[in-house]
Amino acid sequence: MTLYLIGMGISGIRGISIEGLETAKACDKVYLETYTSPLEVDLNEVEKLLGKKVRKLSREELENADKIINESKELNIAILTPGDPLIATTHFSIVLDAVKRGIQVKVIHSASIHSAAIGESGLHAYKFGKMVTLAKLGDYPPFSVYETILDNKKRGLHTLVLLQQDLESGEIIYPDEAIKILLNLEKEQNKGVFKENDIVIILSRVGYDDCLKLAGKAVFVMNRIKRLKLCPAVIIIPGELHFTEREALKTYWIEER
Amino acid sequence: MTLYLIGMGISGIRGISIEGLETAKACDKVYLETYTSPLEVDLNEVEKLLGKKVRKLSREELENADKIINESKELNIAILTPGDPLIATTHFSIVLDAVKRGIQVKVIHSASIHSAAIGESGLHAYKFGKMVTLAKLGDYPPFSVYETILDNKKRGLHTLVLLQQDLESGEIIYPDEAIKILLNLEKEQNKGVFKENDIVIILSRVGYDDCLKLAGKAVFVMNRIKRLKLCPAVIIIPGELHFTEREALKTYWIEER
Asked: Under 8 Å CB-to-CB from B219, ≥6 apart: which residues?
């Protein structure tokens, strides 16, 4: 039998592909995984769309997927995942364990914030360097994020900064906080990576009707979105901008007000 | 009215999302764009799924989208695109022109080879550097591709190499040719970027039932896929490998035979 990992895309279950939907409908058992992304997915809506019972995985079941892998010996199993499966390393661990036990795995891809954010920004995809995740590290400042942005900027490259937004644990960094963290690091490190007048892009709820895109000077953008608690959201620190990229930013550029 | 750009994902029309399908069905007019990717999309299958007439755009209509943009003033228009819309710069030009004329644009995202290839490889997404496209340049060797791989490798980062695979013009680079081109450049430049015993990953037809993934020494992989004319396909040149990444590569590793 087969273990299917099926992506739901970036805006709830309606981002699942036709192929993904039909596959899930035909499976003997369907699990829903919601731990690798801050997307909210409504279990009732999923069950209604699939016309069958769907069980939500606990974090523990996801990280120790032995039971599900064993079930896949006898049954066709689907795990619905946020975004594009496999981008979360947890998913690839499941693939590895399954393959080791001779179980066939098939992945049905869907939209990922990775490419969606790059596309929505209007910046050129081949001008992005290494991406990073800004996570809560207690009192420890995220030097590695700062250094990655520096390294990309030296090459004229853009940096996609994913934000830790773990709804369950409440470890959430909103984009205005992310900008603040990076500006504070700049004050301390002073390497010219990210100053108040440098450009930043924020992309919130890409794929949803209340999607919000803003580009502008860091300090303006930060002030504009303060207290908005944007989630899910990412930020982009641009490197050198091509004139067509500048044109694109104009479509969602903000000034102080 | 609204101009919708709707992604079809990476394996024909069945990669479209539920939201994308419903939106396209409700639009007054639907266009199909197939020029920004080597995916084959069957117009009849698209029309059958949507239950309506769909018109294939010529390359000229895509690049000078005035007519379609004007239509969007009066009608809800959908353009179905391969992959995730906006990753091709042509798509963002359409958005720019439309926004300038006060037309509302909405993008419905879908799978992109960008994230799908990274996921399928089992390599960690945040360890990829700048990506590149290897294109036919006549007799001129692709120095910039070579230099990008060098730059990524110096920092331990992986490189996703997209291949020019333009079915219409016949300008196609198959993955075995791509490996050969890079090995030849290495012989000439001798900077230790990509040698016969270095690891390469090829990913062909990701999302299709005949998907082929191979990892191994460059010379073995090249010989194994010679004359297979794999399309669409991408290659990945890994940088430093984490042990979990090595584990992942083992699931599709090949040796000489």
From this structure: B183, B196, B197
